[in-house]
Amino acid sequence: MNSAENTLTLEDFITRFQLQLPQPNEPARNLRRAAVLIPIICHHRPTVLLTRRATTLRKHAGQVAFPGGAADEEDATLIATALREAREEVAIPSSSVRILGQLPPVDSSSGFQVTPVVGLLAAGTRYRASLAEVDDIFEMPLQQALSLASYTPLQIQRRAKNLRVYFSWYQSHMVWGMTAQILYRLGQHIHL
């Protein structure tokens, strides 16, 4: 982190992300595979692109999420899954994404083992929502998204297990569930 401005620069983020191997908190147990793209937009002050899922969807309707979804047989890798889903949901061309790497997979409440893929997008990259899947697209400052202090932990019980979930607010958007868990883990990874 640049101590003079106390802000996270893109170079700081890339260096911290690439200098350390992500450590899994707990191995994923779900067998069905999925991937999400964590799109970092390379503004002077970087942002992360997030979506609000369509309220008409069967699962996770109206929730803040990364572009992503289930792996298809045609996907050669989980990176290919994340890129395909980003293209389908928010029209980001795969050729516009510079992949930095992956985080360890996490289990979703809907039975998927989800692999987060971190990618960079140029500041001028255009995107647009697929109305069938996405109600809104917004950018959150990367520094806020990865600041552990931005998240409030909450203990819940699910299927007779105690779980810790995180939530945070950005403008009128509540970031919680797996999206908050992934951002929190990424924040832990780069020690912000």
What is the topological layout?
Elements (H helix, E strand, L loop, with lengths): L9 H10 L12 E11 L4 E7 L10 E2 L2 E3 L7 H13 L6 E6 L3 E2 L4 E11 L11 E8 H5 L5 E7 L2 E10 L2 E4 H14 L2
Parallel strand pairs: 1-7
Antiparallel strand pairs: 1-2, 1-4, 2-3, 2-8, 5-7, 6-7, 9-10, 10-11
Structure description:
It is a single chain. By secondary structure, the protein is an alpha+beta fold. It has one domain (10-190): Nucleoside Triphosphate Pyrophosphohydrolase, CATH 3.90.79. Helices cover 22% and strands 37% of the residues. It is built from 4 helices and 11 strands, in the order αββββαββββαβββα. The protein has helices at residues 10-19, 78-90, 142-146, 177-190, and strands at residues 32-42, 47-53, 64-65, 68-70, 97-102, 106-107, 112-122, 134-141, 152-158, 161-170, 173-176. Strands 1, 2, 3, 4, 5, 6, 7 and 8 form an 8-stranded mixed β-sheet that branches. A 3-stranded antiparallel β-sheet has the order 9-10-11. Strand 1 (32-42) and strand 2 (47-53) form a beta hairpin. The radius of gyration is 16 Å and the shape is globular. The termini are close together.
What string gives the helices and strands in order? HEEEEHEEEEHEEEH
Q: Could you name the CATH class?
A: Alpha Beta
Main beta sheet: 8 strands, mixed
Please, how many helices? 4
In total, the number of strands is 11
Distance between the ends: 8 Å
How many individual domains? Answer: 1
State Rg.
Answer: 16 Å
- Summed over residues and divided by their number, the pLDDT gives a mean of 86
Shape: globular
Would you tell me the structural class of the helices and strands?
Answer: alpha+beta
CATH topology: Nucleoside Triphosphate Pyrophosphohydrolase
- The portion of residues assigned to helices is 10-25%
Strand content: 35-45%
Spans of at least 5 consecutive residues whose pLDDT stays below 50 are: 1-5
Please give the CATH architecture: Alpha-Beta Complex
CATH homologous superfamily name? Answer: Nucleoside Triphosphate Pyrophosphohydrolase
